[in-house]
Design a protein that fits this description.
By secondary structure, the protein is an all-alpha fold. The chain contains 4 helices and no strands. It is 51% helix and 0% strand. It starts with 13 loop residues before the first helix and ends in an 8-residue tail after the last helix.
């Protein structure tokens, strides 16, 4: 059984996040959005490996991830 792919936090300037939020489609996940930005720059072997990992990944809702990470606090 594959281990769960942990959620991470990437430090970024607020202006960078604001720009990315304007570019990202509302229902698009951050994973999908960020991977799409780099697909043209990544070698085909890397894209194949990312696809392989994505097929085996266990996805969870935000609420499930929040329960696993008690220091995350939802504001809603």
């Amino acid at each position: 059984m594959a281990q769960a792919d942990p959620i991470t936090s990437i430090p970024a300037h607020a202006s960078t996040v604001a720009l990315l939020q304007r570019l990202k489609r509302p229902k698009e996940s951050w994973d999908t959005f960020l991977l799409a930005l780099f697909e043209e720059e990544l070698p085909p072997e890397t894209i194949a490996e990312l696809d392989r990992r994505r097929k085996n990944a266990r996805y969870s809702t935000y609420a499930e991830a929040e329960r696993r990470h008690p220091n995350w606090k939802s504001e809603h």
